Amino acid sequence: MAGRYDDGVDAVSQPVVEVRDLQYAYPDGHPALRGLSFSIADGETVAIVGANGAGKSTILLHLNGCLMPQAGTVRIRDLPVSKRTLPDVRRTVGMVFQDPDDQLFMPTVYEDVAFGPLNLGLPAEEVDRRVMHALSIVGAVHLKDRPPYRLSGGEKRAVAIASVLSMSPTILVMDEPTSNLDPQARRRLIELLKTFEQTIIVATHDLDMAFDLCARTIVVKEGGILADGPSREILQDAALLAAGQLERPLGLQGCPVCSPPG
Amino acid sequence: MEKTGSSLLDVTYLDTLSYQDTPVHRLDPRVKVLTTLLFIVCVVSFNKYELSALLPFVIYPVVLVALGNLPLGYLVKKVLLAAPFALLIGIFNPLLDRAVLIHLGSVEISGGWVSFASIMLRFVLTVSAALILVASTSFNAVCVALEKLGAPSAFTVQLLFLYRYIFVLADEAWRMVRARSLRSFGGRGMELKVSSLMIGQLLLRTLDRAQRIHRAMRCRGFDGEIRTVRRLRLGYRDLLFLVGCSALFLFMRLHDVPRWLGDTTMALMR
């Protein structure tokens, strides 16, 4: 995984995501993002971490035009995000929301995964091919005729990801993908995400996942960027993490049995 | 899911029933929708004092329950659940309409009681027919059938979403109810005022969720039209069922079968 990050930095390739001086204030005037900038190269895996209300989700919503920048710019590949480029941007950036119940709105799993491709105007055979392919990637082919409300949490999450994969996005954006999953479902999800070739951007509180999955970590605090760099360095830096109201991933902390703290 | 299972509507179980594989379940949903509609129209179109001609219509729900392997007890319970509404509509008839209509020996039955019985009978017939439709077809298939039959898609899409999210809504409502009951002691905290506040809360949460769902839909290219890939196929069994049922309903609607049976037996006995 670490190799990916180095490749991304070394490569002269144009960034696939470029955010410049992004500012956003909620309708009540409370500022959510205070001019932050970052760029992400093709194939990178990036974790956006931060305290509750730091602005993680707001950043994600800008990446595919659910929110429009009030100041600054967001570019996806060579397209600035605007009303006009929205269809192209949304085809490129697949967004997996935090609550699968929001994402899975069609009566059956198959129809839900087919929703995006059908809206792209693809012919029926191609839709079918894409749906079955997406379902097989996440290992959910056997669920295809089930209604979404009859799935377990892990199955719902897998199908939600398939519903986005069926549009063949090159960038996957996920909000808290491991929330509400039992440990094994979480582990399966992480292993699944590791196999993806796409550029992956996750907003999360699960710092162990960030360490495991993402080569790069961006720490967000109060609508600005506190740190941005390799996960190995950032997630080891106790002082930095404390400043972001975070703490070191459990996997990087000492064993509480062998070497009790204090 | 166990949580919604305990809800008043108990839609989950109704949904489970529709996943069976029986001759009734295999019928094309459009055929079942049309048959049910015709059944309901026939039943409600009788005059208000009609009783005897309604009785033969019982055959339709009875046969479908038997062939469709549907649990009778459950359906009866669901019908009873809705009974108060019909009761409320019919209950004043015996008070307002006291003209004697039927003499059974020395017992005189007023028109009010007859029409009341007629209302209750129609209610049982129509509600059970609708329940059987959903239990043997699944709500989603009913919606698809309606759309294929030409119902406006705005209407069917609303129905689909209603059904999809009734589970989520019920869950959310139950969580709120539980949270309240855990912190209410001796009736305090259970007042009507709190209930109304909670309903308001639920509405706000629902609006929030609607906004998130809409956002998720937009992200996947939603432009106001829901596209689906479903195809339905009509077989000769379906047509046979439709034609057979329609003929039977129309016959029972136009002829008072029990009276006719009675008259013939009387004639034969003479």
Number of strands of chain B: 2
Whole-number total of structural domains of chain B: 2
Gyration radius of chain B (Cα, Å) is 23 Å
Structural class of chain A: alpha/beta
**Largest sheet of chain A, order of strands side by side?**
6-7-8-3-9-10
Mean pLDDT of chain A: 90
Looking at this protein, list some descriptive labels.
heterodimer; A: 262 residues; alpha/beta; Rossmann fold; six-stranded mixed β-sheet; four-stranded antiparallel β-sheet; 11 helices; 10 strands; 36% helix; 23% strand; disordered N terminus; B: 270 residues; mainly alpha; 2 domains; two-stranded antiparallel ribbon; 13 helices; 2 strands; 70% helix; globular
Walk me through the topology.
The complex is a heterodimer of chains A (262) and B (270).
Chain A: H1 2-10, E1 17-25, E2 31-40, E3 45-50, H2 56-63, E4 71-76, E5 79-80, H3 86-92, E6 93-96, H4 100-103, H5 109-119, H6 124-137, H7 153-165, E7 171-175, H8 183-194, E8 199-203, H9 207-213, E9 216-221, E10 224-230, H10 231-234, H11 238-243
Parallel strand pairs in A: 3-8, 3-9, 6-7, 7-8
Antiparallel strand pairs in A: 1-2, 1-4, 4-5, 9-10
Chain B: H1 2-5, H2 11-17, H3 23-26, H4 29-44, H5 59-67, H6 72-90, H7 93-96, E1 100-104, E2 107-110, H8 111-137, H9 139-148, H10 153-182, H11 192-219, H12 236-254, H13 257-269
Antiparallel strand pairs in B: 1-2
Helix pairs in contact in B: 2-8, 4-8, 4-9, 4-12, 5-8, 6-8, 8-9, 9-10
